[in-house]
């Protein structure tokens, strides 16, 4: 895939080199607005204080705000049931198909409000979600499945064919499987098809929902490697929902931690990695005795404050 | 030799009739593939389409134009069904959609009879339901024609499903409609297209069966035979609809003729298909050609 709207050197000029954190905002005293665009430019995606309700009554997200900067990789961490998938589905608007609704707040993509947009228009505007559990079309062949990603495109057969070859470059393993039905390929290959298919959309933003789920550690490494490569070479910004905190923090520049439908912590990847509670609860590195009491208290207090 | 020719005659006539069952079954398959719902209104759509076509023709519109107009009418109907019935029921359980098609069925029957009246219309498309002269066995010209139409229809549909962008999207929706949404396939468009296709198939079925039985209310009952075909062939397979139709058409005719000849049993034709379908159900619950449930690795 060729670079879109990028500078001749292949990198878009607006990517901030690092993502320092702004600490506070005055508009909303009760919570911080998390701005990761260090240089003050507008982020590609801005989720602003959204509330999500399923079936008209089940409140799942209770005011979630996050941002993805142009060209960045942002991780959305949290345990099972925290609301990661729900957050991604509200952005792609696949929520409606599961009888969910964004009842409060706004979602802006490249300056346009998208929270009420039809999913197919969201895709056309450049946002694609790779759903949890590598949902392939099991009776389609690998190649047909990949081509469904080009469904909304109108730039002609030639461009689509080129992108297909590009996907096979990223996932050489799929070449030999191109005419096998996706129902009969391995889990790792299915994940590759799911990501490759999303790449066929030519997205500006990819929402990845637990790509590591159920895969062997080596495959996880491989997939995450490809995610960073896509980010770099295709200029796709990425919002990565993961329970695999260690892996996610390796590739992301910035991370949000979601608990019970609320963001309880956010910061750049190193800061989050260093956080004692993250180390204990998510990374399984116990440091009892070494842990600073003040840090724990801060985290607990913050949790209570937001709860 | 005489015996054998007679057997062939019975068999071929049954197989040709089977093609006509297949056409009816195809309509169901299309809707099941796209929306996962058994369309109770398929028979009413046949009546609606055929009644419309006959009425246009009787009003003095040339045959092909009348067919074209009826086709257009079915497309408009499909769009209306998508807007009024399907869209508000998105993401509801299939049972609710099924009940909606029951409502739709009565609405269509009422509407058809309201506009075009209740009296039966004869339909003669100019192909005699008589055997060719000089053939070793008697084969009805009309049945041969109907089989040809059915084959054309199936070939057209298969090409559409496997060689076009929309067809591929349609198969994707049939596998996993949320995943299809996630790549930007519009369910509304897909539903509109499949209901229009099902309307087209209903028109063809309505004309073929209307020629044979007359265009009247009982046309809605042809779906009863299609049900056996669906159980036998599988609810979501085009191949299943064709092969199922042939098996049931052929075997029920042979059973009818020979069992009544040798055992004096009559009326077997009316239930033999179901008997066969039930036997298959025990062995292959998703039918002979239904999409297998692929066990995840
Ligand atoms: N379609 C739905 N209807 C009702 N509740 C749901 C639905 N989907 C998810 N939930 C609930 O929302 C919460 C968050 O789920 P989810 O977003 O899938 O979390 P995660 O992806 O972090 O595991 C869970 O408590 C879950 O039970
Ligand atoms: Mg999830």
Write structural notes for this entry:
The complex is a heterodimer of chains A (307) and B (297). By secondary structure, chain A is of the alpha/beta class. Chain A has 3 domains: 33-126 and 204-218 and 234-272, P-loop containing nucleotide triphosphate hydrolases (Rossmann fold), CATH 3.40.50.300; 136-202, no CATH class; 275-307, no CATH class. Chain A is 33% helix and 21% strand. Chain A has helices at 84-92, 119-124, 142-148, 156-170, 187-199, 217-233, 245-251, 269-274, 276-282, 293-306; strands at 45-54, 58-68, 73-77, 100-109, 112-113, 127-130, 205-209, 237-242, 254-259, 262-268. In chain A, strands 6-7-8-3-9-10 form a 6-stranded mixed β-sheet, with helices on both faces. Chain A has a 4-stranded antiparallel β-sheet with strand order 2-1-4-5, with helices on one face. In chain A, a hairpin with a 2-residue loop joins strand 9 and strand 10. In chain A, helix 3 (142-148) runs parallel beside helix 5 (187-199). The termini of chain A are far apart. The model of chain A is unreliable at 1-35, 289-294 and 303-307 (pLDDT under 50). Chain B is mostly helical and 297 residues long. Chain B folds into 2 domains: 23-115 and 141-215, no CATH class; 221-291, no CATH class. The model of chain B has no long low-confidence stretch (mean pLDDT 89). Chain A binds chain B through residues 92, 94, 96-99, 118-120, 122-124, 128-131, 135-140, 144-145, 147-149, 151-152, 181, 183-187, 197-198, 200-201, and chain B through 90-91, 165, 168-169, 171-172, 174-186, 291, 294, 296-297. Bound molecules: adenosine-5'-diphosphate and magnesium ion. Magnesium ion (MG) binds next to helix 1 of chain A. Adenosine-5'-diphosphate binds next to strand 2 and helix 1 of chain A.
């Amino acid at each position: 895939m060729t670079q879109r709207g990028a500078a001749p050197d292949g990198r878009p000029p607006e990517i901030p080199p690092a993502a320092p954190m702004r600490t506070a905002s005055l508009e909303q005293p009760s919570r911080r607005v998390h701005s990761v665009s260090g240089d003050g430019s507008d982020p590609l995606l801005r989720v602003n204080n959204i509330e999500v309700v399923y079936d008209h009554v089940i409140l799942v997200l209770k005011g979630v705000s996050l941002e993805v900067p142009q060209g960045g990789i942002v991780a959305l961490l949290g345990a099972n049931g925290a609301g990661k998938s729900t957050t991604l589905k509200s952005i792609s608007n696949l929520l409606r198909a599961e009888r969910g609704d964004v009842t409060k707040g706004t979602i802006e993509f490249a300056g346009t409000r998208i929270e009420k947009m039809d999913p197919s228009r969201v895709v056309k505007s450049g946002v694609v979600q790779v759903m949890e559990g590598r949902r392939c079309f099991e009776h389609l062949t690998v190649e047909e499945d990949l081509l469904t990603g080009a469904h909304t495109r109108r730039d002609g057969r030639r461009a689509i064919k080129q992108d297909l070859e590009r996907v096979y470059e990223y996932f050489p393993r799929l070449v030999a499987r191109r005419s096998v039905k996706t129902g009969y390929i391995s889990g790792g290959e299915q994940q590759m098809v799911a990501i490759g298919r999303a790449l066929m959309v030519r997205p500006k933003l990819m929402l990845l929902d637990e790509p590591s789920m159920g895969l062997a550690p080596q495959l996880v490494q491989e997939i995450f490697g490809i995610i960073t490569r896509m980010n770099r070479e295709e200029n796709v910004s990425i919002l990565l929902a993961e329970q695999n905190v260690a892996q996610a923090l390796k590739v992301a520049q910035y991370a949000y931690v979601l608990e019970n439908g609320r963001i309880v912590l956010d910061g750049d990847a190193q800061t989050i990695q260093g956080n004692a509670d993250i180390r204990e609860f998510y990374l399984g590195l116990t440091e009892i005795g070494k842990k600073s009491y003040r840090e724990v208290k801060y985290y607990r207090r913050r949790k209570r404050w937001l709860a | 030799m005489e015996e054998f020719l007679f057997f062939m005659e019975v068999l071929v006539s049954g197989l040709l009739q089977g093609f006509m069952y297949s056409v009816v079954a195809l309509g169901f398959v299309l809707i099941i593939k796209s929306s996962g719902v058994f369309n109770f209104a398929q028979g009413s759509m046949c009546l609606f389409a055929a009644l419309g076509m006959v009425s246009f023709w009787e009003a003095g519109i040339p045959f092909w134009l009348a067919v074209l107009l009826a086709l257009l009418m079915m497309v408009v109907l499909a769009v209306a069904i998508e807007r009024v019935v399907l869209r508000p029921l998105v993401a509801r359980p299939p049972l609710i959609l099924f009940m909606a098609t029951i409502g739709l069925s009565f609405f269509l029957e009422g509407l058809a009879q309201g506009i075009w009246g209740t009296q039966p219309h004869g339909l003669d498309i100019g192909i005699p339901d008589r055997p060719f002269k000089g053939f070793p066995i008697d084969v009805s010209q009309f049945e041969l024609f109907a089989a040809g139409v059915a084959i054309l229809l199936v070939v057209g549909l298969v090409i559409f499903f496997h060689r076009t962008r929309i067809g591929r999207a349609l198969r994707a929706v049939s596998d996993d409609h949320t995943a299809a949404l996630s790549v930007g396939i519009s369910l509304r468009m897909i539903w509109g297209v499949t209901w229009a296709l099902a309307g087209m198939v209903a028109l063809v079925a309505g004309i073929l069966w209307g020629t044979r039985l007359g265009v009247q209310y009982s046309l809605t009952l042809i779906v009863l035979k299609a049900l056996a075909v669906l159980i036998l062939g599988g609810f979501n397979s085009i191949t299943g609809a064709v092969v199922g139709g042939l098996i049931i058409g052929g075997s029920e005719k042979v059973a009818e003729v020979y069992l009544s000849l040798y055992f004096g049993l009559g009326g077997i034709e009316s239930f033999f298909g179901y008997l066969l379908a039930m036997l298959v159900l025990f062995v292959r619950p998703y039918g002979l050609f239904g999409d297998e449930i692929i066990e995840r690795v």
